[in-house]
Design goal:
160 residues; mainly alpha; DUF222 domain-containing protein; Ferritin
């Protein structure tokens, strides 16, 4: 496997982890409809990225699953618990912890996109550059969303 194949493999692993984290967040905080629906939409972006990464890897002879499991294993149970707890104050700290973890995961994915983009540029691989140009902005939007949610929610949750 080439070094570029290793970068694609790590990006695929990280993007899958991001999709799982987003799906988990959506289920765990289903009572917060904004968090639930936005997290589901953002997870869909990561799933689309996985297909593109897999296709790019295949062109380099690296076999990556285009549709790995990206759903939370306990999603339905977490959703039921979220519905039972409703909007009680206790889940607020859990939401902040989940958003913090999500932000860290997303930052790692963003760095992986940067590494791939810089490598593709050095290798003059226009197909990879196009993929990075299409996908990395989505990851940056995911990163901004988690950062925004932490900024908005932290004062409300911690000060209450």
């Amino acid at each position: 496997m080439t070094k570029l194949g290793l970068v694609l493999r790590e990006l695929h692993r990280a993007e899958r982890a991001l999709a799982v984290d987003l799906d988990t967040l959506a289920h765990r905080h289903a009572a917060d409809h904004e968090v639930h629906h936005v997290a589901q939409d953002l997870a869909r972006w990561s799933r689309e990225h996985l297909v593109r990464i897999s296709d790019a890897a295949s062109a380099l002879g690296v076999d990556l699953d285009p549709e790995p499991r990206t759903t939370a294993r306990t999603g339905s149970a977490q959703e039921k618990i979220s519905d039972l707890l409703g909007r009680r104050p206790e889940p607020g700290m859990l939401l902040l912890v989940d958003l913090r973890r999500l932000h860290q995961t997303t930052a790692g994915v963003s760095i992986d996109w940067v590494m791939l983009g810089q490598s593709a540029q050095a290798l003059k691989n226009h197909d990879l550059l196009e993929m990075v140009s299409d996908c990395h902005p989505d990851t940056l939007r995911q990163l901004r969303w988690s950062n925004h949610m932490i900024k908005i929610l932290a004062p409300q949750i911690v000060a209450s």
